[in-house]
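Annual report, structural modelling task.

Input specification for the coenzyme A complex:
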Amino acid sequence: MELPQDKHAVLRIMARPSDVNIAGDIFGGWLMSQCDIAGGIYASRLAGGRVVTVAVNNFQFIAPVLVADIVSIYVDTIRIGTTSITVKVTVLIERRDGKNETTMKVAEADIVYVHIDENRQPAAITQE
Ligand SMILES: CC(C)(COP(=O)(O)OP(=O)(O)OC[C@H]1O[C@@H](n2cnc3c(N)ncnc32)[C@H](O)[C@@H]1OP(=O)(O)O)[C@@H](O)C(=O)NCCC(=O)NCCS
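The model returned the following structure:
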């Protein structure tokens, strides 16, 4: 598997020793947080304003993330509603082992964001 050539990751970050669980692998909550950040950046751009996360659905950890993996998070639109945006978040990692580099999908999720106004109330999404 290779990184997609036709689109950019919203977020790219290296997994660090400070992000591990007690077993020494990367903590799932860290990865969920990065996914929420990436999805939020994407949804906020689409909505043209502030968004909040209202639901995280179908989060799947497919393979473990290890320290020094380079994590790339891709985001695609699933649905744009009146005030909400549902996105598909896909997480790929690049792992170097000596001269070999492997790329694999490690997680995916569907995340729902709501566009809000200055009073934190849902606001209509108007696309230009
Ligand atoms: C997001 C929030 C403003 C929505 O308020 P609300 O009164 O429930 O709003 P509504 O019922 O009008 O729903 C707004 C939209 O969200 C969608 N929605 C609400 N709850 C949802 C859920 N659990 N799953 C999927 N979509 C949901 C609705 O379908 C609607 O979409 P649409 O306008 O595109 O049709 C409110 O729930 C909130 O502030 N939640 C906390 C958000 C937050 O702080 N997130 C970070 C947590 S640390």
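The pocket of coenzyme A is lined by residues 52-55, 81-84, 112, 114, 116, 120, 122 (CB under 6 Å).
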